[in-house]
Amino acid sequence: MLMGLRPFQEEVIPAQKVAHHQLPEGEGRWKTVIPIIEELKVKAKKLGLWNLFLSKAHYPKYGVPLTNLEVRTPVERVGLVFE
What we know:
Mean pLDDT: 82
Radius of gyration: 14 Å
Structural class: mainly alpha
Strand content: under 5%
Number of strands: 0
Shape: globular
């Protein structure tokens, strides 16, 4: 599952600038679905990198078979912001 983390992260970092450009100014920004984010969500789900914080024990349908300790480092890496 976490094998796809590094290649996925290499897509996420440049997508941050694209997302900023796709986000409109003003009130509409809070109601906008950013296209690049939606694309990345689909890829993350396919790679098993979506909802890593949900435990399989508590959410058998959606959770991942990792403990909080095991999921900490990957989640930290994915959550980094590079500008």
